[in-house]
Amino acid sequence: MPIDWLQGSMRVHRAMARLAAAHLLALATVAICSCGASKPANQGPPPLVLEKTIPLPDTKGRIDHLAYDAAGRRLFVAELGNDTVDAIDLVSGRRTIRLSGLRHPQGLAWLDGPRELAVADQGGAVRFYRGESLDLIATLKVGDDADNLRVDPRDGFLLVGYGDGALATIDPATHAAIKQMPLPAHPEGFRLDGDTVWVNLPDNGSIVRGDLASSKVTARWSTGLHRLNFPMAFDRKSRTLAIAYRLPARLALVDPATGTERQVLDTCGDSDDVFFDETGGQLFVICGSGEIDVYRHGASGFEMTAGVPSRSGARTGLLVSQESRLYVAARALGGSGAAILVFKSRSD
Hints:
With 348 residues, the chain is mainly beta. It is built from one helix and 28 strands. β22 (271-276) and β23 (282-287) form a beta hairpin.
């Protein structure tokens, strides 16, 4: 059987499964009232204030992940529906470079050491672009549907999720995959802590914990009646995993050692990103329903403090804690052009 045909068949199968899940989500959104909006525990000054809006000219379709170059003060935007990646100068608020001809770019990662941008796309490639001019220097074929990217802070190695279930470790010095960890299903959000990795597997209804040293899964936890677990965050200080579900719309705070749910809270609908604020002690959930839910850790656990309006369909973003800013990608919708919404975080 030709490999291209087989890979194409797997792509179609995954696409159909996700379409069915999306249809189920739409029905559930009507049936479950708490799926769209949640009630903040206290009213007060908004924890996020819209500071400015940066236009993304000539950008259509869904926007996926973001990456940040601190030294260059640049934000990178994966414009999945546009087959482009934009580099935004955050000082001027203007696009400086557009990378085009990509096959639905999804994951982005900025490598500080070599000053390279890594781009993962649905075509199964991870491309590396170097320096201020973002010159293409290497292309690595890892497998169908290359998605989320993470940089291991210990050694600068890059991890990418792809295919029907795998994580690859890439050496940025050689731009070659040096390890693969098999997984039971396609990986979505994942987080690292030393040799430990936690991975969301929404197609499998589970979360897994893996060991990077042995490239093996060491535990699997069923999500039960909570489904469509795409975003994940990890807080080292409190040793807490945050998992946001779309069906029903819930935020689970999980013990990373045992998989036990410490808390399950209401959250906004169509979540796709979640972040712990390392400096302000807050937790943000970004949702396509058009809001960002904000939580704070108190004496009895996490509680919601605000639901901050954003834009309908704006469900991906990036928290830059050292700047106290949350960047949210808003697709072109309803007469409004695509843009980056820049929120200033208040920790007081």
